[in-house]
Amino acid sequence: MKLSTFTKILLLTTLTSVVLPLSVYAAPAISSISGTVTHGSAVTITGSSFGTKTTAAPSLWDTVDNNYSLSDGASIPTGGSYPWGGQQGTTYDTSDAQRTSHSTAMYKSTDGHVDSHTVSPTGQLYVSWWLKMSANPIPPDGNHSSKFIRAGNSAHQQDPNVETFSWTQQQSYIYDGNYLADDWLNNGQTDWAITPNQWNFLEVWFDNTAKTYTIKVDGNTKVNASSWAGGNFNFDYVWLIGFDAGGNAPPTLTLWTDDIYIDNTFSRVMIGDASTYASSTHFEMQPPTAWSSSSITVSLNQGSFADGSTAYVYVIDANGNVSAGNPITFGGTFSTSGTSGTNPKPSPPTLAN
Predict the structure, then answer these.
(1) Which pLDDT does position 4 carry in this prediction?
(2) Other CB atoms closer than 10 Å to residue 307's CB: what's the count?
């Protein structure tokens, strides 16, 4: 049957109207930044396609010194108005060298951790934190199973056999009576590149719709979108962060933890040390205080960036799309150069069993 020109145009218009909204998602774009480039100042980022964030502030922003008034060496209190429901062997440390000049305290423990934080409502789960360890977490035999973080579903808190995620010194996995995901160190790695006696930035995020999780260390992807397909549950509960020694002959480690960020969405603002998100290896979280599709206000967190240094502002939306980097100089002025980009999606690594 021969179609008329009018019919062809009508069909093309109909198909376009159906397909385009499903396939085109604009990445966030920064048009301007205003405020003072100093630690703790209010900075407003304007632009487009930032998406929505129902509650602007993260579920938890724990710089340690912002939640307690304790003496050096005091045991961390839990429950009530404190950020953690429990802890093991963790103290308030003000005497050791701090991660940044803006910090006055951090968590310190020997094979210890802080425990129990639930996000609500359940959507996604994003967690980042800074960790320093006194030795390599992998001894020569490597046969222990010690956790940097354990997460789960709040309906089954602290049950290792039900809906649990563990990131250990040698693997990451999701377990629910069976291993729904089980990713071992690979490609000749001997560890997660968590360098002893050096601060490392750790990230893990869970997409509860796609049923995937991703792990990064200092901006480098270690596990990419590993699937727990078949697991009909969401992650909304951080069981512990630190070092939970277990298994056969785990090492004894002193560890320090700082600047823990937890939220129920991937939407966030970060500054990085490179002009592209993919090439950045030093990130600092920027806790938002207001968020709309065209304007975000953050409390500027300089972190360990030095005065006079340049960093790049990135806005990430709930779908993982990231803006182009917008340069700022601490103690200097803002720049608005750059165009939007997309959060790189590296290919999944080949896993060794």
Answers:
(1) 55
(2) 13
Residue 188 and residue 268 in contact, taking contact as beta carbons nearer than 8 Å? no
More confident residue, 283 or 3: 283
Residue-range domains of the chain with CATH? 26-53+267-353 (2.60.40.10), 60-263 (2.60.120.200)
Q: Give me the pLDDT at residue 73, please.
A: 97
What are the distances in angstroms from CA 77 to CA 61, 67, 104, 227, 316? Answer: 17, 10, 18, 36, 34
| CA atoms in the 13 A half-sphere facing the CB of 213 | 27
Six-digit token string for 258: 């700082």
Beta strand 326-329 pairing with 212-217: unpaired
Burial of 270 (0-12, 13-18, 19+ CB in 10 A): buried
Cα 234 from Cα 231, distance rounded (Å): 8
Closest among 321, 123, 119 to 209, alpha carbons compared: 123
Neighbours of 41 (CB within 10 A): 12
Q: Helix, strand, or coil here: 11?
A: helix
Calpha distance 161→175 (Å, rounded): 6
Find out whether 318 and 51 touch, Cβ atoms under 8 Å: yes
Q: Is the dihedral of CA 144, 203, 158, 163 positive or negative?
A: negative
pTM of the complete model: 0.87
Question: ∠51-53-59 over CA atoms, to 5°?
Answer: 145
Residue reference for tokens 């996995």: 173
- H/E stretch holding 13: helix 5-23
Considering Cα of 161, then 145, then 148, then 352, what sign does the dihedral take? negative
Question: Is the pLDDT confidence value at 187 over 80?
Answer: no
Q: How far is the C-alpha of 126 from the C-alpha of 262, rounded, in Å?
A: 6
pLDDT digits (tens, 9 = 90+) for 115-168: 999 998 778 999 999 999 998 887 655 677 889 999 999 988 777 778 899 999
